[in-house]
Amino acid sequence: LKLSHSPDKGDQQKAALELSKLVEGTVFPAVSFGPLAHALCRLVPSEHRDVACYSAKAVKTLLLDDALRPQAVAVGIPAALVESLRRWSDEVTCVRELVGALQTLCWDRVAVPTVVSSGIVPLLLDLLASPDLETRLLCTATVANLMSYADSLLLTQDDVVQEVSQRVGAILDLAKSHDKAERCYAVAAVANA
């Protein structure tokens, strides 16, 4: 955790890699998540690709625990993920980890308003045109998760409604994909909207 506060890229990279390995084999009780979450909030939006990627992987793994998602929202993980996604939107490995973490956050009703207010929707919709199938799948699944709240949480989010309505054609194009998973997620996104 101390290395995450170092200005040195090597220290940050070591911290990100070690945290990523640590969370894969450890169950964290909600009480001990705070310091770890703060360290990851610092590392995820890093200017160094490996630091951002390994940190996002750690976040994604931690967010699989339902109890940790509300705390992740409280410490600012969604904003850190979106900031990093803006920075690394051209790096497929980073995008996969970052969107995977955001998709996991969007499983939880408590997290959705914060994720949306972080500015994720335009980024996700832009990434639907990615040449990488896994990136498109993750983005389409995340859009489908978000759209499941279109009639409740997102009802007052005019900017989100406008953005999605302007890009519904791109989602419909994915519904015609040869890839079965991509078709399913795109249809789910449209049905949820």
What features would you describe in this structure?
The chain has 193 residues and is mainly alpha-helical. It contains eleven helices and no strands. The protein has helices spanning 9-24, 33-43, 49-62, 69-75, 77-87, 92-105, 112-117, 120-127, 133-147, 158-174, 180-192.
Give me the count of strands: 0
This entry's quaternary arrangement is single chain
End-to-end Cα distance? 41 Å
Structural class: mainly alpha
TL;DR?
This protein is mostly helical and about 190 residues long. The chain contains eleven helices and no strands.
How do the strands and helices of this protein lay out in sequence?
Layout: H1 9-24, H2 33-43, H3 49-62, H4 69-75, H5 77-87, H6 92-105, H7 112-117, H8 120-127, H9 133-147, H10 158-174, H11 180-192
Notable traits:
193 residues, mainly alpha, 68% helix, 0% strand
